[in-house]
Amino acid sequence: MIGLGLLKAMKVTLKNALKAPFTIQYPDRKVGIIGAAKNEGKSTVGLMATQPVTAAKAALSMYSVPVNIPQNRRFRGNEFTWYEDRCTGCASCAKYCPLGIIEIVTSPGGFDVQEGESYAIDKFDIDIGRCMFCGLCVEACPYDALHMGSQFERSKYERDALVIPVDELRQALRQPSSWFRPQFEERDYDPFRDGPEDDHYKTGRHEMPDQETLDQRWVEDR
Amino acid sequence: MTTQVRTEPITVNLGPQHPSTHGVFRMRVTFDGEEIIDVEPIFGYLHRGSEKLAEERTYVQVVTLTDRMDYVGSMLNNQAYMLAVEKLAGVEPSPRGVWLRMIASELQRIASHLVAVGFLIQDLGAWGTPLIYTMREREKILDLFEMLCGARITNSYLRPGGVFMDAPEEFWPAMNAVLDELPPRIDDLDDLLTDNDIIFSRTKGVSVLTPEQMLDASITGPMLRAAGVDWDLRHRDPYDYYDQVTFERPLHTAGDNFARYWVRVQEMRESIKIVRQCEKLIEPGPVRPDHDDVPWLLRPPVGDAYAAIEHSKGELGFYLVSDGSISPYRCHVRAPSLINLTLLREMLVGELLADMFVSFGSVDINMGEVDR
Ligand code: SF4
Ligand code: SF4
User: What is the spatial distance between Cα B370 and Cα B64, in angstroms, rounded to a whole number?
Assistant: First the structure.
């Protein structure tokens, strides 16, 4: 019958109209006075008493709180996490990058008491303006020195500013994603829950040698 | 009293930058009044030379290029490419890896069909609502992909012989939740659209293609099945472990826009069934062969190989020629989107202006794949 289908369709629309919206407001969402009080860590009355301006703003829906979008720990973000202590300058990552956008310059002469001689990294530039976050560089790194990051808010106004130079990489927030790093999943590390990880021994697949082995090595290397 | 109004044909250039062309596609259309009398499709505005780029990359690096061919069906592209590489290099895939990639590609098929259906309805003029419904469902599947491989669209999840890493433990409950949620949503979609009189009158009998026409033009996929030809590579020439799962192949006989839409909606249900069976059959084990068997720098013996899968849009095939080095000597893609578009003139001539983009959308093309 003509029209019955339309009624059926209307029913679906009505059903969905009553549901809570699926949309996520990004980067922040407007909240009312109760939400504002929660964000400030006060009771509603307390907020009105101590911060009347904030309370008035919230009442006029001019107050917003940031939104945390749930992400998964394998998320391939763009702030690469790099542990200089682990990196040997082998340039496997540069070789495996399909676009060849990692530029590495090393010079001999780095020296580590425990590990012996190594290369010093002079340049480790990643041009993330051309990066496609495939993660192959991370997969290629034999020493677990390079990890995908977990952040994504890194837009810039100029293309040149998108190159991550080595100095920035050294100071970057080290919150590695667990993409291609099974050791993270074994010990249930979630960058979004557990925060940054600065101990490079914990992020690698290779155990930290115990003191005895280190002493031994120190003697043998002599 | 009627007077004869003299009309003359007018040629309109549509695209390449037109919101309804699903990308950058250009058509030179000649109208007589509202009726289309000639169509000339012009391809190539999104040509990125993926096939040529593949020639100077290693076999693993090419995965990232296949993601970007049909960007609403990345997992399926990965799968077709990996099958070709495995055939070429004689790699024996790991069973768990194969099950995982079957799960991933069936989920991707649902996501791809959701996009196709949503945009088809949007082309009909239903701005927003149905599209947002289908996108909402797709978003959940993309969340699953993010769990699996850290990316939502450009997955690069598959590797020669399997997948790059096992699914995390939180993936399975999440996947089951999505699979439980999907059938009622598809029922909703059915209620909203399939029985809808407006959709009926707009799509029934429009742009009919006969099976003979389509077989001559080697059109595959839901378009062919909408005309009643039972041709599905998952059934006809089972790759991976499709011979171990059972599923039905929804067929429609009309071959018009409505049939193409209908087949896609029904195929989503079958994909859900396949994923559920895969989940039962999957067993623990390694997800990819040892590095000794499949090294990073794969050097397949001299020769060539062709492998095809049933993509959500039709038969997607990769033809690879190896000269024994670390990168393919030649890579050719049999792109279903491009071949399915070849009958565009036959579909459109004689139809009305308002139905033009509906018919175009019912082919379910993706410009990234058409031009590559
Ligand atoms: S993520 Fe991919 S494109 Fe980006 S630097 Fe690593 S290998 Fe290159
Ligand atoms: S990050 Fe890893 S692959 Fe790259 S140079 Fe350092 S050790 Fe080698």
Answer: 17
- Res B264 pLDDT > 80: yes
Mean pLDDT, chain A, integer: 79
Structure-token pair, residue B35: 């009726």
What distance in angstroms lies between residue A88's CA and the mean position of ligand 2's atoms? 6
Q: Point out which residues pair with B36 in neighbouring strands.
A: B31
Residue pair B162/B85 in contact by the 8 Å Cβ criterion: no
Element (DSSP H or E) covering residue B320: strand B315-322
Residue A148 has its nearest CB partner, among B64, B150, B197, at: B150
pLDDT at A211 over 70: yes
- Burial bucket for residue A57 (CB in 10 Å: 0-12, 13-18, 19+): middle
Task: Give the pair of three-digit tokens for residue A4.
Answer: 């019955």
Q: Where are the beta strands (DSSP E) in B98-188?
A: 158-159, 162-163
* Contact of A133 with A168, CB cutoff 8 Å: no
The model carries a pTM of 0.85
Task: Report yes or no: B142 and B107 within 8 Å, Cβ to Cβ.
Answer: no
Of the candidates B206, B241, B232, B242, the residue with the CA atom closest to the CA atom of residue B361: B206
Q: In chain A, which ranges are continuous DSSP H helix?
A: 4-17, 33-40, 44-50, 52-59, 92-96, 136-140, 166-171, 182-186, 191-194, 200-203, 211-221
**AA letter at B328:** P
**Amino acid found at B191:** D
Q: Cβ contacts of residue A56 below 8 Å, gap of 6+?
A: none
In whole angstroms, give the CA distance from residue B219 to residue B85.
Answer: 25
In chain A, CATH 3.30.70.3270 sits at 77-203
Task: Give chain B's domains with CATH numbers.
Answer: 10-371 (1.10.645.10)
- What is the least distance, in Å, from the CA of B165 to any CA of chain A? 7
CA–CA gap between residue B282 and residue B368 (Å, rounded): 33
The alpha carbon of residue B314 is apart from the nearest alpha carbon of chain A, in Å, by 26
Q: Please indicate whether residue A131, judged by its CB atom, sits closer than 6 Å to ligand 1.
A: yes
Question: For residue B130, is the peptide bond before it cis, meaning its omega torsion is within 30 degrees of 0?
Answer: no
- Which of A102-111, B23-32, B115-124 shows the lowest per-residue confidence on average (mean pLDDT)? A102-111
Q: What is the mean pLDDT of residues A120-137?
A: 85
Type of residue found at A48? M
In DSSP notation, B215-270 reads: HHTT--THHHHTTT----HHHHS--TTGGGS-------SS-SHHHHHHHHHHHHHH
Which ligand has the shortest distance to the CA of A87?
A: 2
Mutate to test the interface with B, among A1, A4, A18, A74 (most CBs of B within 10 A): A74
Q: Is the complex ipTM higher than 0.90?
A: no
Q: How far apart are the first and last CA of chain B?
A: 56
CATH of domain A77-203: 3.30.70.3270
Q: What are the φ/ψ torsions at residue B311 (nearest 5 degrees)?
A: -80, 165
- pLDDT value at residue A111: 65
Helix (H) or strand (E) holding A109: strand A102-112
Q: What value, to the nearest 5°, has the Cα angle with vertex A169 and ends A164 and A174?
A: 125
